[in-house]
Amino acid sequence: MPRSALVVCALALLTLAARPAPAQDTTTQRGVRIGLTYQPGTKPGVVVLPVTGPDGDSVRAILQRDLDYGDRIEVITGDAITSTASTQTGGGGSAINYGVWKSLGAAALVEAAVGPLGVHVVIHDVTAKRAVRTGDFSLSGAPQSPEWRMAVHGISDEIERWITGVRGIARTRILYVRGNRVYVIDSDGYGERAVSDAGTVLAPAWSPDGRYIAYSRLERRGWDIIVHDLVTGSSRTLAATPGGLNTTPAFSPDGKSIAYAHGDENGTDIYIASLAGNGRAQRVTVGRGTDNISPSFSPDGGRVAFTSGRSGHPEVYTADVDGSNVELLTPFNFGDQYYRSNPDWSPDGRLIAFQSLLNGQFQVMTISLRDRTVKQLTSEGVNEDPSWAPDARHLVFTSSRTGVKQLFVLDTESGRARQLTHAAGARLGAWSHWLDHVQ
Amino acid sequence: MRAMLRRLAPVAFLATGACFATREDVRSLQSQLDAMRASAAQADSARQAQLDRVIASLGLVRDSLGVMSARVIKMQGDVRGDLYNIGQELIQVQELTGQSQRRLQELRAQLEERNPNAAPAPAATRPSGAAAPASPQGAPTGAQPASPGPNQLFQLSLEQLRRGSPAAARTGLETLLQQYPTADIAPDAQFYLGEAYHAEGNNAAADSAYAVVVEKYPTSPRAPTALYKRGLYMEQQGNLTGARAMLNQLIQKYPRSDEAALARERLRAMK
Lengths: 439, 271
Hints:
The complex is a heterodimer. By secondary structure, chain A is mainly beta. Chain A folds into 2 domains: 45-164, Rossmann fold; 173-431, 6 Propeller (Neuraminidase). Helices cover 14% and strands 38% of the residues of chain A. Chain A starts with a helix and ends in an 8-residue tail after the last strand. Residues 18-33 of chain A have low confidence and may be disordered. By secondary structure, chain B is mostly helical. The A-B interface holds A 1-5, 7-8, 10-12, 14-15, 18, 280, 282-283, 286, 288, 300, 302, 310-312, 315, 322-328, 331-335, 349-350, 369-371 and B 88-89, 91-93, 95-96, 98-99, 106, 131, 133-134, 144-148, 152-153, 156-157, 159-160, 162-165, 168, 171-172, 175-176, 179, 195, 199, 225, 228-229, 232, 258-259, 261-262, 265, 269.
């Protein structure tokens, strides 16, 4: 067999191995699996048993909601579950009648107890009729405080990892703009609070470690990039390119630099500046008088996706972070009046989400970086400004489907959407990474 | 005194005698004066009329010039607008050409995948005694699979690079360059070989691969990009003299490229 044929076979096999599973089955992915088997396209049924100890009901409600919002597990609830649960005490599986739970459709049971040291969790495999995983988690802060809720979200994510092999997205938050402030909200829609001073603000973004946020604020001399420390509460201006328009900041994956759009009379171009503030900002785009905005880093930090008007109307392009090797990403036809903008690179590097103007309304779409196939994800109302969750499966976006602008979360695999915010005028959502070191 | 008076008397008589003109003389003089005034007024009127006509003509000329000027300005604006639109359309055409070329390349790869025998014969000269690749036409290949085409190799390699397997990508690209050194896709393959080395963290090998792009394929659109990357690599290595030389070479050879604009900024930052 010729060497090139061997090479192509090897490349093809590697490529096939890299393709995602056709449905929800994630049994081949990393993480500790408990041996559950289920048909592709279905989700394992999981029952969260009543949680004993102080604030157990709140813990149970959060666990159920988080597992449901993860969209990889079918959380079984209802009267039958409540009455069955009341007759069983759990306790390491000794008193659990697995047959009954199996008849109710459960593949796994989550048993949790809140004690003085935290939460003790046991996962039961109903088919194997035994406890397959246990873990202890500490809780911090007063019940229902942001720290306490974050700790419970962390438990949810671990449970999801134990059951499906994929970590959940509960221990994350979403930044957005409402009115004249930047707000933050937990991934389940609770705990909304303002994190910026009043002012004309735009384009919030997270640092990878979740400690810093950056946003654009209108000052007397123009639009500035503000970097805010969520731990100390201090803010400072990124002074790399003072004056003019400085907007749409994005942290690099290593958290050491920020890409942003800087505009003046010569057009708007993307620059990258050190977060420490040393050195000049390095130019990334050569717009020649056109507008280039909304940078988004690839997960490895080697490339940047951005919106550029260099072809006459906005389209999504990618380039190396040094500014070279520019490629048009989104396809368009000659004379096309519609356009595509606001890209966000998925954390797994496979897709870029963007908004596309269709029949006068923005819709959220994704484009595959492998074969450049475009997939439209929304159609109801105006839907714009997508931002990926760290699981590269969920998106938060602004939608007017309720009549006013609100943030919605979309599961890109099942198409299920849920409303995240309920106060009118929420927009420009930005999903954080996992906030492992943030309370 | 008296003698003087006697001498002046005849002179005074003569002088005062001229003042004794008849009334007829005065009338005649008056009529002549009136005639002269009328003639002068008529001449003035004619001149005024002529002047008015000249002024009117000038006004017309001025208006015409104004209209002409406005037309010229509008035409200039139209031409500028048209030129801008043509420029934009050219950029669109360029973008679409690039898009079409990528699509064509993908289609070629698909074609090669579906019909391996249609793949172009490898153009590389092989050492004597080396096994020849599968013949595209009629060769008794039997169960032996035919060689993959350059586009297929390129697509698969690029896919590996994008999904974070630079070593696999590099193997594919090296095979492509070895088997099909004159393929249309060879400059891109050589460039992405540098990208694969860079992704592996082997920046020295990446620099060498970029150098081959510059030397072997100077007319390829990848050449200015490769030169720019070489300049940045030298800057990272602390070789500012070499970096400046490389970036200046880029500006000189490819002055209209995006990389040249970036190089000018890098040179300013390095001062």
